[in-house]
Specification:
The structure is a single chain. By secondary structure, the chain is of the alpha+beta class. It has three domains: 2-55, Structural Genomics Hypothetical 15.5 Kd Protein In mrcA-pckA Intergenic Region, Chain A, CATH 3.10.290; 62-125 and 212-238, Pseudouridine synthase I, catalytic domain, N-terminal subdomain (Alpha-Beta Plaits), CATH 3.30.70; 129-209, Alpha-L RNA-binding motif (Alpha-Beta Plaits), CATH 3.30.70. It is 21% helix and 29% strand. The protein contains six helices and 17 strands. The strands form four sheets. Strands 7, 8, 9, 10, 13, 14, 15, 16 and 17 form a nine-stranded mixed sheet that branches. A four-stranded antiparallel sheet has the order 3-2-5-6. The chain has a two-stranded antiparallel ribbon with strand order 1-4. Helix 1 (4-10) crosses helix 2. The longest helix has 12 residues, at 227-238. It is an enzyme of class 5 (isomerase). It comes from Vagococcus silagei. Residues 2-59 form the RNA-binding S4 domain. One of its GO terms (molecular function) is RNA binding.
């Protein structure tokens, strides 16, 4: 048995706090009965409705996906372009991406059906470190990278401290490879940061989220996360001493 708001969060209805608000507002029914008080517990056999729409309880699953370039970080697209869920034909749970990667950006992307887990990893105050490799136009100097590290203004707001490392520089072609580690997840953030210092991104790949890397995977491939990996992500995101209990992960 789990608390109703926790089940709603796992199913991706809303965060746990917003799920509690929905309950107290009289928007949730369990087995046809209106529930307005917190503390109600439900089992997998209970029928839950939110605003008259049934939600389905699934066992949580967690995947690490190597998103290829030219794929939408969504479960569907009205222009019929390729989306990330196209690469999971054998997965029957209703998974979705945790956050997003741009259409023309490749790299590591987490997929799950656990809404609470997704909210935790994408909440502004709980962002885990993410490492990107960018090929940029031009040859940035130390002071340019220092600006990235101390923060640049994008969309009217300064970015949080970052770590920038020059991996290589081609003077003749006027391009460079830079590794950038950030803890935020703002829209097009990495591209905008480089644009802010005058070095447009030509190619971008996300190589790491927290402790997770793409080792052993090719573009378009995925693997299921272990219970230990999921727990460690929770620790990374929230600073917990112990992770939440999860099920159906490989040992």
């Amino acid at each position: 048995m789990e608390r109703l708001q926790k089940v709603m969060a796992h199913c991706g209805v809303a965060s746990r706090r917003n799920s509690e608000k929905m309950i107290t507002e009289g928007r949730v029914k369990v087995n046809g009965q209106l529930v307005t008080e917190l503390g109600v517990k439900v089992s997998a056999s209970d029928a839950i409705e939110v605003d008259g729409v049934p939600i389905y309880q699934e066992e949580p699953v967690y995947f690490l996906f190597y998103k290829p370039k030219g794929v939408i970080s969504a479960v569907s697209d009205d222009r019929e372009r390729s989306v990330v869920t196209d690469y999971f034909p054998s997965v029957h749970e209703r998974i979705f991406p945790v956050g997003r990667l741009d259409f023309d950006t490749s790299g590591i992307l987490l997929m799950t059906n656990d809404g609470e887990f997704s909210n935790l990893l994408t909440h502004p105050s709980h962002e885990v470190p993410k490492i990107y490799i960018a090929k940029v136009k031009g040859n940035p100097l130390k002071e340019d990278l220092k600006a990235l590290e101390t923060g640049v203004e994008i969309d009217g707001r300064k970015t949080a401290p970052a770590v920038a490392k020059l991996k290589s520089s081609d003077i003749q072609k006027k391009t460079a490879i830079v590794e950038l580690t950030i803890h935020e997840g703002r829209n097009h953030q990495v591209k905008k940061m480089f644009e802010a210092i005058g070095f447009p991104v030509l190619k971008l790949k996300r190589e790491q989220i927290g402790h997770l890397t793409l080792t052993g995977l090719n573009p378009g491939e995925y693997r299921e996360l272990s219970k230990k990996e999921v727990s460690q992500l929770t620790v990374d995101a929230k600073g917990l001493k112990t992770g939440r209990r999860h099920t159906r992960q490989t040992k």
